[in-house]
Design a protein that fits this description.
Blueprint: H1 3-27, H2 33-45, H3 47-72, E1 80-85, E2 88-93, H4 94-106, E3 111-120, E4 125-133, H5 139-158, E5 162-172, H6 175-184
Parallel strand pairs: 4-5
Antiparallel strand pairs: 1-2, 3-4
Length: 185
C-alpha cells in the first residue's frame, strides 16, 4: 500500500470507529432519542446539511471501492531480472541475487553481518550492501574488497551484469556485546 491508500484506510477506519461508538451509545441508550431525531431533522431541513451528508457518502463509497480494489488486487509475482538468449528466457529472482551477494560478502574478512538490497535502474543493476564490520581491519580496504568480490561473484554465477556495488558500513561490533555472546555460548 502506498501513502495515499494508507491515508484513505486511516480516515475510513477513524470514521467507522466513530460510527461504532455512536451506535454503541445508541444501543446502551446513552444518547437521548430527541437528540437523534432533532439532529436528523436539522440535517434534512438544512440544504447545507443534506449536501454535506451527500458529499460524505460519496467520499466514503469511493474510499470503500478503493480499499476493496487494493485488498483484492493480486500480488505481483516474484521480482526477477529477465534475460533472453538463443534458447529462450532466463529469469533470476532478486532473492537469488541477494543470497549470492550475502554468501560472498560474508566470506570477506572483517564482515560480521551483511544485508543486501538489489535495485534495477536504466543504468543497470545496483547492489547495496549494509555491513556491520568487526572493527579490526581497515574499513576502506574491506569495502573495496566487498565491492570487487560481490560484483565478480554475482556476475560470474548469474551472468547478470552489475553496474555498481554500494557499501554502507552501518556499525562495528561492540566488544562488550561480543564478550557477552561468547559467555552465553
Amino acid at each position: 500500500m502506498n501513502f495515499f491508500d494508507r491515508f484513505i484506510f486511516f480516515v475510513f477506519s477513524l470514521f467507522v470507529a466513530l460510527l461504532s461508538i455512536i451506535m454503541m451509545f445508541m444501543g446502551l441508550r446513552l444518547i437521548p432519542r430527541y437528540i437523534l431525531t432533532d439532529g436528523l431533522g436539522l440535517v434534512y431541513q438544512s440544504r447545507n446539511g443534506s449536501l454535506l451528508i451527500l458529499i460524505m457518502s460519496f467520499i466514503l463509497l469511493a474510499a470503500s471501492f478503493r480499499l476493496m480494489a487494493v485488498l483484492l488486487k493480486r500480488k505481483r509475482g516474484v521480482d526477477t531480472i529477465n534475460q533472453r538468449n538463443d534458447l529462450g528466457d532466463i529469469r533470476i529472482s532478486i532473492a537469488t541475487l541477494q543470497h549470492l551477494a550475502i554468501k560472498e560478502a560474508s566470506s570477506v574478512p572483517g564482515v560480521r553481518e551483511v544485508k543486501v538490497k538489489i535495485r534495477t535502474s536504466e543504468k543497470g543493476n545496483v547492489i547495496v550492501l549494509r555491513v556491520i564490520a568487526d572493527g579490526h581491519s581497515s574499513i576502506q580496504e574491506m569495502s573495496e574488497q566487498l565491492q570487487r568480490r560481490v560484483k565478480s561473484h554475482v556476475e560470474e554465477i548469474s551472468a547478470i551484469p552489475i553496474h555498481q556495488v554500494t557499501v554502507l558500513v552501518a556499525d562495528i561490533v561492540n566488544n562488550a556485546a561480543e564478550q557477552k555472546v561468547r559467555r552465553v555460548e
